[in-house]
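Input.
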Amino acid sequence: RDKDALVAATARQQLGEHDHPEAPALAVELSRKSGANAGSDVHTAVMQGLLANPTKEHLEALLVATARAEDPFRTARTAAWQRAVMAAGCLEWLTTTGLARKPSIERATAARVLGFASGDAQATAAAALAKALGQKEPDAVAATAQALVGLGAGFADEPLQKLLQGGGEALQPIALGALHQLHGAEATFQEQLLVHANAKAAPLRAA
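Output.
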């Protein structure tokens, strides 16, 4: 095992990308040695290694690494995240512990991961995300809104409309942008946009 952090991180990332059976154990070791202040390349390696075999036991390390990794939710990783959120115990951890983490960047990451839920798990994820829209930090709210968009209009519309109507000036544009992703081509939404274009709040007019 190479003592140079960058070389070691690259090796572990390669193991993760090829689903090597030792990837999770090596990623955990790297995570413990590097800590939260490591570079994004190291966090990306840890994330990739743990995604090879996601478990509730290592979910905290995965969340910490993902929050600081490079482009963690790129399209090529969609299937891996879908497996992760559906792994035993992971959905429950993300909706409770994950969304309650102290750093907003980690709460935002937990929200994004919940957006990959499928089947019956979508309702559980959506309920937790709807509550998470009540956070104050725009980055966490934006990630939560994006996760709801990923779950579809059936789950996203009501909480996003609630945020649009009752959220603060800094958060309302987030709700409007998310709703635009879902309904931008619909005539009724275009009418709603015209209403908000004349809103008193400058951020909402600019959204």
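The first helix runs from residue 5 to 17.
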